Amino acid sequence: MSDIVTMGEILVRLSTINHNTFSQSGEFQVNYGGGEANVAVSLAGFGHNVRFVTKLPDNAIADCAINELYRMHVNTDYIIRGGERLGSYYLESGSSVRASRVIYDRKHSSISEAKPEEFDFDKIYDGIKWLHISGITAGISREGAELTESFAREARLRNIKISLDINYRGKLWSMEEAGKVMPSLAELADIAFAGPVDCIKILGCTDTIGDDTDKAMADKAVGEQVLRELAEKYNIRYVINSQRESISATHNIIGARIINGATGECVYSSRYDVDSIVDRVGGGDALAAGVLSSLAYDYEDFARAIEFGAAASAVKHTINGDYNIASRELVEELMVSGGNGLIKR
Fold first, then answer.
1. Who is most buried in 85, 144, 243, 256, counting CB within 10 A?
2. 5 phi/psi in degrees, rounded to 5
3. Given CA atoms 55, 59, 61, 64 in this order, what sign does their dihedral have?
C-alpha cells in the first residue's frame, strides 16, 4: 500500500431530496465532500494509507467533517484548526432533461485563507510517495493558489510523485485567471487529469489546432493530439481525460482515455452505460482515485489504470453523496461483468 496525501477543501454539502428543485425544498440532506477529500476517501476504500490535509475552523460542524473522514479510514492527523468557517455548497439534483445545479458558499473559508507556513511539511510528507492536488483549491482564492503550489513544490523537493486534476470550475474563477496559475502546477505534475478545452484555454496548448476547442472536442484524433501536446509541453508522464456521453441528467455513458507521455500511445477504457444515475457528483474524483490507485501499485501499467479508473467512476454514479465508497473488489467485479446488475448471493 502506497502512502498518499491529498490536500484541499472539504465542504458541507446540502442536497435537495428526491430530485426536488431548490424552490420546492423545505429540507436538505447533509453530506461532506470536496474534490481532494473525495479522492482520499476512495483511495482509502481501495486499501491505501491516505492522509487528507486541510484547515478547518474549531467548531462542531468541522468536527463532523473530520469524523466522517475518520470513519472512512482517512488519516486526519494533519488537519490544522483555525479560521472562521467551513465552506458549503448546495446541490439541486437534476433529472432527465433538467440538469443539476450547484451554488457555492465558500468565501473566507478556513482553507481559503490558510498560509503555507502553518503546515509542517516534514511531518506531512514523512514516508509519502504521492501527492494529489486539484485546481479547485487553487481556484478558491489567491491564498488557495499559493498554498496548492507550495504543497506541490515541497513534494517535488522530496521526490514525491504529483497527481494534478485541473478540475476547472467556472463559478470559482475565469479560464484567464486559471491560466495564470495552473501552468506552474502542471510543470510540477507527473500525471494530470485534463480535457482538451483545459489544455487549450488554460494550459496554452495551441500548436495542434490553435484555439479551436470545438474541433478538439468533436474529433477523437484531434483531442488525442491535444493531450499529447500537453504531455510534451509539461513533461507529464500520463494525461487522463474522462469520456462522458450525456444522454440526460440521469443517463450517461462513462469512459476514459489515457495518453502515455513517454510513447504517445493512447488507450481507451471500456464504456459503461449508467441509465439510472443516483449521484454524478464526484465521478471525476472517482476516476482520479482509480487511476492513481492503479499507478501507485504499478506505475507502468497505464492500460490497467484507465480501466480501473473508468469502472470506479461508473460505480460512483450509483452511490449517493460525494464519496465513492465502493471497494476495490466491487470495481473489479464491474470490470469483469460489464455491469449486468446480477444479484450477488
1. 256
2. -110, 135
3. positive
pTM of the model: 0.94
CA distance 176 to 193: 19
- For residue 321, give the nearest of 276, 283, 268, 274 by alpha carbon: 283
> Where would I find the beta strands (DSSP E) of the chain?
3-7, 11-15, 29-33, 49-53, 55-56, 80-81, 88-92, 101-105, 130-134, 161-165, 191-193, 238-248, 251-260, 266-268, 272-274
Nearest to 23 by CA among 105, 90, 86: 90
CB 171 within 8 A of CB 90: no
**Region 153-181 average pLDDT:** 96
The answer to whether 193 touches 135, Cβ cutoff 8 Å, is no
CA-based torsion, 258, 217, 35, 323: positive or negative: negative
Cα angle 340, 341, 345 (rounded to 5 degrees) comes to 120
pLDDT band per the 50, 70, 90 thresholds, residue 178? very high
At 38-51, the pLDDT tens digits run 999 999 999 999 99
Q: What is the residue type of 153? A: R
pLDDT tens digits for 68-105? 999 999 999 999 999 999 999 999 988 889 999 999 99
Spell out the residues 6+ positions from residue 331 whose beta carbon is closer than 8 angstroms to its own: 46, 290, 308, 311, 312, 315
pLDDT at 340: 64
Closest CA to 326 of 42, 17, 13: 42
| 8 Å CB contact between 94 and 101 | yes
Contact 313, 254 (CB under 8 A): yes
Report the C-alpha gap between 258 and 217 in whole angstroms: 15
Please tell me the predicted confidence (pLDDT) of residue 215. Answer: 80
User: What whole-number percentage of the chain has pLDDT above 70?
Assistant: 98
Do residues 272 and 253 touch, judged by C-beta distance below 8 A?
yes
Angstrom CA distances, 130 to 6, 27, 308, stand at 8, 39, 18
- The span from the CA of 56 to the CA of 44, in Å, is 21
